[in-house]
Amino acid sequence: MTDLLHPADHANPAAIKRLAVLTSGGDAPGMNAAIRAVVRTATHHDIEIVGVRRGFSGLHRGDMRIIGPRDVANTIQRGGTILLTARSHTWRTPEGRAKGAANLREWGVDGLIVIGGDGSFHGGYFLQEEHGVPVIGIPGTIDNDLYGTDHTIGYFTAVETALDAVDKLRDTGASHERIFVIEVMGRHAGHIALEVAVAGGAEEVFIPEDPKPVDGVVQIVKDSVAKGKASSIIIVAEGYPGGATGVSDAIEKGTGLETRVSILGHIQRGGSPVSSDRVLASRLGEAAVYALMDGKKGVMVGRENGQIVHTPLHETWEKSKDVSRDLYRCAKMLSV
Ligand code: F6P
Predict the structure, then answer these.
(1) 141 and 10 in a common domain
(2) 143 is catalytic
(3) How much is the pLDDT for 336?
(4) Which residues does the annotation say bind substrate (predicted)?
(5) Do 20 and 128 sit in the same domain of this protein?
(6) What is the reported pLDDT for 8?
(7) Could you read off the pLDDT of 2-30 as tens digits, one per residue?
Protein backbone atom coordinates (compact mmCIF):
# COMPACT_ATOMS: atom_id res chain seq x y z
CA MET A 1 0.00 0.00 0.00
CA THR A 2 2.83 2.41 -0.88
CA ASP A 3 0.28 4.88 -2.21
CA LEU A 4 -1.02 5.57 1.29
CA LEU A 5 2.37 6.65 2.65
CA HIS A 6 2.94 10.31 3.27
CA PRO A 7 5.42 11.58 0.65
CA ALA A 8 7.91 12.50 3.37
CA ASP A 9 8.17 8.76 4.09
CA HIS A 10 9.83 8.16 0.72
CA ALA A 11 13.54 7.75 1.35
CA ASN A 12 16.28 8.85 -1.00
CA PRO A 13 18.75 5.94 -0.96
CA ALA A 14 20.38 7.18 -4.17
CA ALA A 15 21.13 10.48 -2.36
CA ILE A 16 19.92 12.55 -5.30
CA LYS A 17 20.50 16.28 -4.76
CA ARG A 18 19.78 17.81 -8.14
CA LEU A 19 17.77 16.65 -11.15
CA ALA A 20 17.22 18.04 -14.63
CA VAL A 21 13.98 17.86 -16.61
CA LEU A 22 13.24 18.51 -20.28
CA THR A 23 10.43 18.10 -22.79
CA SER A 24 11.27 16.86 -26.26
CA GLY A 25 9.64 15.99 -29.60
CA GLY A 26 6.00 16.85 -30.31
CA ASP A 27 4.37 18.70 -27.43
CA ALA A 28 1.34 17.18 -25.73
CA PRO A 29 -1.32 18.66 -23.42
CA GLY A 30 -0.39 17.71 -19.86
CA MET A 31 3.38 18.14 -20.24
CA ASN A 32 3.18 21.17 -17.94
CA ALA A 33 1.33 19.14 -15.34
CA ALA A 34 4.17 16.58 -15.50
CA ILE A 35 6.87 19.27 -15.13
CA ARG A 36 4.94 20.73 -12.18
CA ALA A 37 4.74 17.31 -10.52
CA VAL A 38 8.46 16.69 -11.03
CA VAL A 39 9.39 20.08 -9.57
CA ARG A 40 7.08 19.85 -6.57
CA THR A 41 7.87 16.23 -5.71
CA ALA A 42 11.58 16.99 -5.89
CA THR A 43 11.26 20.14 -3.81
CA HIS A 44 9.31 18.24 -1.17
CA HIS A 45 12.34 15.96 -0.84
CA ASP A 46 14.90 18.79 -0.82
CA ILE A 47 16.05 18.04 -4.36
CA GLU A 48 16.79 20.93 -6.71
CA ILE A 49 15.48 20.94 -10.27
CA VAL A 50 17.23 22.28 -13.34
CA GLY A 51 14.79 23.07 -16.17
CA VAL A 52 16.30 22.51 -19.62
CA ARG A 53 14.71 24.59 -22.38
CA ARG A 54 14.13 23.37 -25.95
CA GLY A 55 14.74 19.67 -25.27
CA PHE A 56 18.03 18.03 -26.16
CA SER A 57 19.09 20.94 -28.32
CA GLY A 58 18.91 23.15 -25.19
CA LEU A 59 20.84 20.55 -23.21
CA HIS A 60 23.55 20.62 -25.85
CA ARG A 61 23.70 24.42 -25.73
CA GLY A 62 23.47 24.67 -21.93
CA ASP A 63 20.09 26.46 -22.02
CA MET A 64 19.31 25.59 -18.38
CA ARG A 65 18.22 27.25 -15.14
CA ILE A 66 17.08 26.28 -11.66
CA ILE A 67 13.27 26.17 -11.36
CA GLY A 68 11.21 25.97 -8.19
CA PRO A 69 7.60 25.40 -7.12
CA ARG A 70 6.55 29.00 -7.90
CA ASP A 71 7.88 28.73 -11.47
CA VAL A 72 5.31 26.02 -12.17
CA ALA A 73 2.40 27.80 -10.48
CA ASN A 74 -0.65 28.31 -12.68
CA THR A 75 0.61 25.85 -15.32
CA ILE A 76 -1.41 22.68 -14.65
CA GLN A 77 -4.22 23.87 -16.95
CA ARG A 78 -1.98 25.13 -19.74
CA GLY A 79 -1.35 23.28 -23.00
CA GLY A 80 2.08 23.18 -24.67
CA THR A 81 5.22 23.10 -22.56
CA ILE A 82 6.68 25.95 -20.52
CA LEU A 83 10.14 24.44 -21.11
CA LEU A 84 9.64 24.60 -24.90
CA THR A 85 10.44 21.62 -27.10
CA ALA A 86 12.41 20.75 -30.22
CA ARG A 87 13.53 17.88 -32.40
CA SER A 88 17.35 17.99 -32.19
CA HIS A 89 19.68 16.93 -35.02
CA THR A 90 22.85 17.67 -33.03
CA TRP A 91 21.79 15.15 -30.41
CA ARG A 92 21.99 12.37 -33.00
CA THR A 93 25.79 12.76 -33.01
CA PRO A 94 28.08 11.39 -30.22
CA GLU A 95 29.75 14.85 -30.04
CA GLY A 96 26.39 16.53 -29.40
CA ARG A 97 25.59 14.11 -26.60
CA ALA A 98 29.07 14.51 -25.06
CA LYS A 99 28.55 18.28 -24.88
CA GLY A 100 25.14 17.77 -23.23
CA ALA A 101 26.63 15.34 -20.70
CA ALA A 102 29.38 17.87 -19.90
CA ASN A 103 26.73 20.53 -19.26
CA LEU A 104 24.89 18.21 -16.87
CA ARG A 105 28.16 17.49 -15.00
CA GLU A 106 28.91 21.20 -14.80
CA TRP A 107 25.49 21.80 -13.23
CA GLY A 108 26.00 18.95 -10.75
CA VAL A 109 22.97 17.04 -12.02
CA ASP A 110 22.46 13.50 -10.63
CA GLY A 111 19.78 12.39 -13.10
CA LEU A 112 17.67 13.50 -16.06
CA ILE A 113 13.91 13.20 -16.60
CA VAL A 114 12.85 13.19 -20.25
CA ILE A 115 9.20 13.89 -21.07
CA GLY A 116 8.38 12.85 -24.65
CA GLY A 117 7.90 9.96 -27.06
CA ASP A 118 10.14 7.17 -28.35
CA GLY A 119 12.46 9.51 -30.29
CA SER A 120 13.12 11.42 -27.07
CA PHE A 121 13.69 8.20 -25.17
CA HIS A 122 16.29 7.16 -27.75
CA GLY A 123 18.09 10.43 -26.99
CA GLY A 124 17.99 9.76 -23.25
CA TYR A 125 19.02 6.13 -23.65
CA PHE A 126 22.19 7.01 -25.58
CA LEU A 127 23.09 9.70 -23.03
CA GLN A 128 22.88 7.11 -20.27
CA GLU A 129 24.73 4.39 -22.21
CA GLU A 130 27.59 6.65 -23.29
CA HIS A 131 27.96 8.95 -20.26
CA GLY A 132 26.37 7.11 -17.34
CA VAL A 133 23.75 9.77 -16.62
CA PRO A 134 20.71 8.08 -15.01
CA VAL A 135 17.71 8.79 -17.24
CA ILE A 136 13.99 8.30 -16.54
CA GLY A 137 11.34 8.72 -19.24
CA ILE A 138 7.80 10.05 -18.83
CA PRO A 139 5.51 9.17 -21.77
CA GLY A 140 4.26 12.41 -23.33
CA THR A 141 2.78 12.16 -26.82
CA ILE A 142 -0.74 12.48 -28.16
CA ASP A 143 -0.22 9.34 -30.28
CA ASN A 144 -0.45 6.89 -27.31
CA ASP A 145 1.99 4.64 -29.15
CA LEU A 146 4.40 3.72 -26.35
CA TYR A 147 4.75 0.21 -24.99
CA GLY A 148 4.77 0.15 -21.17
CA THR A 149 1.82 2.36 -20.33
CA ASP A 150 -1.90 2.09 -20.99
CA HIS A 151 -2.00 5.76 -21.93
CA THR A 152 0.44 8.52 -22.73
CA ILE A 153 0.12 12.10 -21.48
CA GLY A 154 -1.83 14.18 -24.02
CA TYR A 155 -3.76 11.36 -25.64
CA PHE A 156 -7.03 11.92 -23.77
CA THR A 157 -7.07 15.63 -24.63
CA ALA A 158 -6.22 15.02 -28.29
CA VAL A 159 -9.13 12.57 -28.54
CA GLU A 160 -11.53 15.12 -27.04
CA THR A 161 -10.29 17.83 -29.41
CA ALA A 162 -10.66 15.58 -32.45
CA LEU A 163 -14.06 14.35 -31.32
CA ASP A 164 -15.33 17.89 -30.89
CA ALA A 165 -14.28 18.60 -34.49
CA VAL A 166 -15.93 15.41 -35.74
CA ASP A 167 -19.22 16.35 -34.04
CA LYS A 168 -19.12 19.77 -35.71
CA LEU A 169 -18.28 18.32 -39.12
CA ARG A 170 -21.17 15.91 -38.70
CA ASP A 171 -23.56 18.87 -38.36
CA THR A 172 -22.51 20.40 -41.65
CA GLY A 173 -22.15 16.97 -43.31
CA ALA A 174 -25.71 16.04 -42.36
CA SER A 175 -27.07 19.38 -43.54
CA HIS A 176 -25.43 19.08 -46.95
CA GLU A 177 -25.87 15.28 -47.18
CA ARG A 178 -22.15 14.89 -47.77
CA ILE A 179 -19.48 12.36 -46.97
CA PHE A 180 -16.75 13.74 -44.70
CA VAL A 181 -13.35 12.07 -44.65
CA ILE A 182 -11.55 13.28 -41.53
CA GLU A 183 -7.84 12.77 -40.92
CA VAL A 184 -6.58 12.64 -37.35
CA MET A 185 -2.96 12.53 -36.12
CA GLY A 186 -1.01 9.35 -35.62
CA ARG A 187 2.06 8.96 -37.82
CA HIS A 188 2.48 5.29 -36.99
CA ALA A 189 -0.51 4.53 -34.79
CA GLY A 190 -4.29 4.42 -34.98
CA HIS A 191 -5.16 4.90 -31.29
CA ILE A 192 -6.64 8.37 -31.74
CA ALA A 193 -8.44 7.35 -34.94
CA LEU A 194 -10.04 4.28 -33.42
CA GLU A 195 -11.19 6.01 -30.24
CA VAL A 196 -12.61 8.94 -32.19
CA ALA A 197 -14.30 6.61 -34.72
CA VAL A 198 -16.18 4.75 -32.00
CA ALA A 199 -17.01 7.85 -29.93
CA GLY A 200 -17.99 9.80 -33.04
CA GLY A 201 -20.11 7.05 -34.60
CA ALA A 202 -18.08 6.88 -37.80
CA GLU A 203 -19.08 4.64 -40.71
CA GLU A 204 -15.50 3.44 -41.28
CA VAL A 205 -12.01 3.87 -39.84
CA PHE A 206 -8.60 3.40 -41.48
CA ILE A 207 -5.54 2.83 -39.28
CA PRO A 208 -1.89 2.03 -40.09
CA GLU A 209 -2.05 -1.17 -38.00
CA ASP A 210 -4.45 -2.63 -40.59
CA PRO A 211 -3.42 -1.47 -44.05
CA LYS A 212 -6.55 -2.98 -45.67
CA PRO A 213 -7.21 -1.97 -49.28
CA VAL A 214 -8.88 1.42 -49.57
CA ASP A 215 -11.38 0.11 -52.16
CA GLY A 216 -13.48 -1.57 -49.47
CA VAL A 217 -14.78 1.85 -48.47
CA VAL A 218 -16.65 2.14 -51.79
CA GLN A 219 -18.97 -0.72 -50.88
CA ILE A 220 -19.40 0.62 -47.35
CA VAL A 221 -20.54 4.00 -48.66
CA LYS A 222 -22.81 2.37 -51.27
CA ASP A 223 -24.39 0.20 -48.56
CA SER A 224 -24.87 3.26 -46.33
CA VAL A 225 -26.64 5.10 -49.12
CA ALA A 226 -28.81 2.03 -49.81
CA LYS A 227 -29.79 2.02 -46.11
CA GLY A 228 -30.91 5.62 -46.42
CA LYS A 229 -27.89 7.34 -44.91
CA ALA A 230 -27.40 10.62 -46.71
CA SER A 231 -24.15 11.58 -44.99
CA SER A 232 -21.23 9.59 -43.63
CA ILE A 233 -18.19 10.15 -41.45
CA ILE A 234 -15.00 8.27 -42.33
CA ILE A 235 -12.02 8.58 -39.96
CA VAL A 236 -8.48 8.10 -41.29
CA ALA A 237 -5.28 8.03 -39.21
CA GLU A 238 -2.51 10.15 -40.70
CA GLY A 239 -0.31 7.04 -40.97
CA TYR A 240 -2.72 5.04 -43.15
CA PRO A 241 -1.18 4.83 -46.65
CA GLY A 242 -2.58 7.63 -48.81
CA GLY A 243 -4.20 9.38 -45.84
CA ALA A 244 -7.62 11.01 -46.03
CA THR A 245 -7.05 12.25 -49.57
CA GLY A 246 -6.48 8.69 -50.83
CA VAL A 247 -9.67 7.49 -49.14
CA SER A 248 -11.67 10.44 -50.47
CA ASP A 249 -10.41 9.87 -54.04
CA ALA A 250 -11.41 6.21 -53.85
CA ILE A 251 -14.93 7.12 -52.69
CA GLU A 252 -15.45 9.77 -55.37
CA LYS A 253 -14.16 7.46 -58.13
CA GLY A 254 -16.08 4.42 -56.94
CA THR A 255 -19.41 6.04 -56.10
CA GLY A 256 -19.54 9.34 -57.98
CA LEU A 257 -20.58 10.98 -54.70
CA GLU A 258 -19.17 14.28 -53.51
CA THR A 259 -16.84 14.17 -50.49
CA ARG A 260 -15.06 16.72 -48.34
CA VAL A 261 -11.69 16.14 -46.67
CA SER A 262 -10.86 17.70 -43.34
CA ILE A 263 -7.34 17.30 -41.95
CA LEU A 264 -7.43 18.21 -38.27
CA GLY A 265 -3.64 18.51 -37.92
CA HIS A 266 -1.81 20.28 -35.11
CA ILE A 267 -4.93 21.61 -33.42
CA GLN A 268 -4.98 18.16 -31.77
CA ARG A 269 -1.73 18.95 -29.96
CA GLY A 270 -2.99 22.14 -28.32
CA GLY A 271 -5.45 23.19 -25.68
CA SER A 272 -5.98 22.83 -21.97
CA PRO A 273 -5.40 19.22 -20.85
CA VAL A 274 -8.48 17.27 -19.74
CA SER A 275 -8.53 15.94 -16.18
CA SER A 276 -7.34 12.42 -17.15
CA ASP A 277 -4.18 13.87 -18.69
CA ARG A 278 -3.54 16.17 -15.72
CA VAL A 279 -3.92 13.33 -13.24
CA LEU A 280 -1.82 10.89 -15.29
CA ALA A 281 0.90 13.55 -15.67
CA SER A 282 0.84 14.29 -11.95
CA ARG A 283 1.21 10.61 -11.03
CA LEU A 284 3.97 9.98 -13.56
CA GLY A 285 5.88 13.15 -12.65
CA GLU A 286 5.93 12.06 -9.02
CA ALA A 287 6.85 8.47 -10.00
CA ALA A 288 9.77 9.67 -12.15
CA VAL A 289 11.38 11.50 -9.22
CA TYR A 290 10.82 8.51 -6.93
CA ALA A 291 12.37 6.21 -9.52
CA LEU A 292 15.58 8.26 -9.52
CA MET A 293 15.57 8.52 -5.71
CA ASP A 294 15.28 4.71 -5.58
CA GLY A 295 18.34 4.34 -7.82
CA LYS A 296 16.44 3.27 -10.96
CA LYS A 297 17.73 4.32 -14.35
CA GLY A 298 17.05 3.70 -18.03
CA VAL A 299 13.34 3.12 -17.50
CA MET A 300 10.09 4.80 -18.47
CA VAL A 301 7.47 5.27 -15.78
CA GLY A 302 4.01 4.29 -16.96
CA ARG A 303 0.59 3.39 -15.60
CA GLU A 304 -0.95 0.00 -16.34
CA ASN A 305 -4.26 -1.08 -14.79
CA GLY A 306 -3.98 1.84 -12.38
CA GLN A 307 -0.54 0.83 -11.10
CA ILE A 308 2.78 2.62 -11.66
CA VAL A 309 5.13 0.40 -13.67
CA HIS A 310 8.72 0.73 -14.91
CA THR A 311 9.71 -0.42 -18.41
CA PRO A 312 13.27 -0.41 -19.79
CA LEU A 313 13.54 2.52 -22.19
CA HIS A 314 14.63 0.35 -25.12
CA GLU A 315 11.53 -1.84 -24.76
CA THR A 316 9.32 1.20 -25.31
CA TRP A 317 10.38 1.24 -28.95
CA GLU A 318 11.43 -2.40 -29.44
CA LYS A 319 8.03 -3.73 -28.38
CA SER A 320 4.89 -2.35 -29.93
CA LYS A 321 1.61 -1.43 -28.33
CA ASP A 322 -1.23 -2.67 -30.49
CA VAL A 323 -4.52 -0.86 -30.84
CA SER A 324 -7.43 -2.50 -29.06
CA ARG A 325 -8.63 -5.19 -31.47
CA ASP A 326 -11.88 -5.38 -29.48
CA LEU A 327 -12.50 -1.71 -30.09
CA TYR A 328 -11.72 -2.16 -33.78
CA ARG A 329 -14.24 -4.99 -34.00
CA CYS A 330 -16.77 -2.94 -32.05
CA ALA A 331 -16.28 0.04 -34.40
CA LYS A 332 -17.14 -2.20 -37.35
CA MET A 333 -20.21 -3.75 -35.74
CA LEU A 334 -21.74 -0.47 -34.63
CA SER A 335 -21.31 1.32 -37.95
CA VAL A 336 -24.42 -0.21 -39.52
O1 F6P B 1 3.43 14.24 -31.55
C2 F6P B 1 3.16 13.21 -32.45
C3 F6P B 1 2.68 13.79 -33.71
O4 F6P B 1 1.58 14.58 -33.38
C5 F6P B 1 2.29 12.82 -34.81
O6 F6P B 1 1.01 12.30 -34.70
C7 F6P B 1 2.48 13.70 -36.04
O8 F6P B 1 2.71 12.92 -37.16
C9 F6P B 1 3.68 14.48 -35.68
O10 F6P B 1 3.65 14.62 -34.29
C11 F6P B 1 3.82 15.80 -36.36
O12 F6P B 1 4.83 16.51 -35.74
P13 F6P B 1 5.63 17.78 -36.25
O14 F6P B 1 4.72 18.58 -37.09
O15 F6P B 1 6.02 18.45 -34.99
O16 F6P B 1 6.78 17.25 -36.99
Answers:
(1) yes
(2) yes
(3) 76
(4) 141-143, 178, 185-187, 238, 260, 266-269
(5) yes
(6) 61
(7) 456 666 678 999 899 999 999 999 999 99
Number of domains in the chain: 2
Confidence (pLDDT) at 84 = 98
| Residue 208 pLDDT | 97
Residues annotated as binding site for substrate? 141-143, 178, 185-187, 238, 260, 266-269
Three-state secondary-structure class, residue 139? strand
190 residue type, one letter? G
- How many angstroms is it from 26 CA to the middle of ligand 1? 6
Atom of ligand 1 nearest to the CA of 238: 8
Ligand 1 pocket, residues with Cβ under 6 angstroms: 26, 141-143, 185-187, 238, 269
Structural domain containing residue 175: 155-269
Task: List the binding residues.
Answer: 26, 36-40, 87-88, 117-120, 141-143, 170, 178, 185-187, 201-203, 227, 229-231, 238, 260, 266-269
Which residues of the chain fall below pLDDT 70? 1-8
Which CATH number characterizes residue 285's domain?
Answer: 3.40.50.450
The terminus-to-terminus CA distance of the chain in angstroms comes to 46
Residues 192 and 184: their CA atoms lie apart, in Å, by 7
Is residue 179 within 8 Å of 251, Cβ to Cβ? yes
Best residue among 143, 183, 236, 238 to mutate for probing ligand 1, ranked by most atoms within 8 Å of CB: 143
Helices (H), the chain: 31-44, 55-61, 94-106, 118-131, 155-176, 191-199, 216-226, 243-255, 275-293, 313-318, 325-334
CATH number, domain at 204? 3.40.50.460
pLDDT value for 1: 45
Which is catalytic among the residues 27, 143, 145, 277? 143
- Rounded CA separation 264/184 (Å): 6
